[in-house]
Write a structure and sequence with these properties.
The chain starts with 6 loop residues before the first helix and ends in an 18-residue tail after the last helix. It is 37% helix and 17% strand. The protein has helices spanning 7-15, 60-75, 95-105, 125-136, 152-157, 164-176, 194-206, 224-230, 239-252, 282-296, and strands spanning 19-24, 80-85, 111-118, 140-148, 180-187, 211-216, 219-220, 258-261, 271-273. The strands form 2 sheets. It has a 7-stranded parallel β-sheet, sandwiched between helices. Strands 7-9 form a two-stranded antiparallel ribbon. It binds iron/sulfur cluster. The site of iron/sulfur cluster has 11 residues, from loops.
């Protein structure tokens, strides 16, 4: 019995075969870095969350073709794809330029969906409408908003330069455009405890979002968080503690919320802590969360109380 509604399970049921996300990195920046909203970015930001193997110097077509080739070698020729615009703020640009990128991604017949990561304060109605036009053409379109915490004091502490209201507003408008919404959360941010993580899960339940990403806070070198960590003013969560908190959050989220991510991966020596946030230990962390739910005789959604929901359906 599957205790967690992972994206791979959802996608297999929806498309009848394996769906692989192809992460791409483009030369975007972020309004929290370029001075529009703030400078320096979120205190944990390391290269806008760009995966190690990607370079924005490589063209979008090259990145997609390389992603398709590799995934098909590994998972077989029937695999289909979502292009995942991952690093920095992927809706922060001129509408025409954005459209050109999304058009390029949908040129490939193996691509059946788009997944666009952004900030909740960077989702204008024009961008949402444009993304929705791909949905009208038969693509599945997810928009991913970084929230990280439902505690406004935390958002200030980590220099997010947006509020909870921005997230609520962005989610409601994205839903009006019939986009699927995924929200990123981080467990273990400075000053937070279990009550905060659970409140974040409850907010996402109330907003009836279709997907979540949950991962532990991890410290990368040359960030503000690294300085706090090195000065002994901040500690990351141990694996057992993270596993227990993630299981608590999953119990609160509805059983049909799609779980896109449950841990984070980075490489040493840029990764300072925790030691389990590596590519090599990814499956171990996920397995530990599944085992924790099993040990409790529990599963995702077991404690979820979906209220009226701010927006019905999806
Ligand atoms: S919103 Fe994302 S890209 Fe921008 S500063 Fe924060 S973590 Fe970095």
């Amino acid at each position: 019995m599957e205790r967690i509604n992972f994206f791979r399970l959802y996608a297999k049921e929806r498309f009848g075969r394996r769906i692989q996300k192809i992460p791409v990195a483009l030369p975007f920046t972020c309004p929290n870095i370029d001075g529009t909203k703030g400078r320096g970015g979120c205190i944990y930001c390391y290269r806008g969350s760009r995966p190690e193997h990607l370079s924005p110097r490589q063209s979008l077509r090259e990145q997609i073709e390389e992603g398709i080739r590799r995934a098909r070698e590994r998972y077989g020729r029937r695999t289909l794809f979502f292009v995942y615009f991952q690093s920095y703020t992927n809706t922060y640009g001129e509408l025409e330029e954005l459209k050109e990128l999304y058009d390029t991604a949908t040129e490939y017949e193996e691509v059946v969906g788009l997944d666009v990561g952004t900030r909740p304060d960077c989702a204008t109605d024009e961008v949402l409408e444009m993304l929705s036009s791909y949905r009208d053409r038969g693509y599945e379109v997810w928009i991913e908003f970084g929230l990280q915490s439902a505690n406004f004091e935390t958002l200030k502490r980590i220099n997010r330069a947006h509020g909870i209201s921005d997230l609520v507003d962005a989610v409601l408008r994205a839903k009006r455009h019939a986009l699927k919404v995924c929200v990123h959360t981080i467990v273990g941010l400075p000053g937070e405890d279990r009550v905060d993580f659970l409140e974040t899960a409850k907010l996402l339940t109330a907003l009836n979002v279709e997907g979540v990403k949950i991962h532990p806070v991890y410290v990368m070198r040359n960030t503000v968080l690294a300085r706090l960590y090195e000065e002994g003013r901040f500690k990351t969560l141990g694996l057992r503690e993270y596993v227990s908190c993630a299981a608590d959050m999953l119990e609160l989220l509805p059983e049909d919320t799609v779980v896109h991510r449950l841990t984070a991966e980075a490489k040493r020596p840029a990764l300072l802590s925790p030691e389990y946030c590596t590519y090599e230990r990814k499956l171990e962390v996920i397995r530990a969360i599944e085992e924790e739910l099993e040990r409790r005789g529990s599963r995702q959604g077991i404690k979820s109380v979906r209220g009226v929901g701010l927006v019905e359906g999806a």
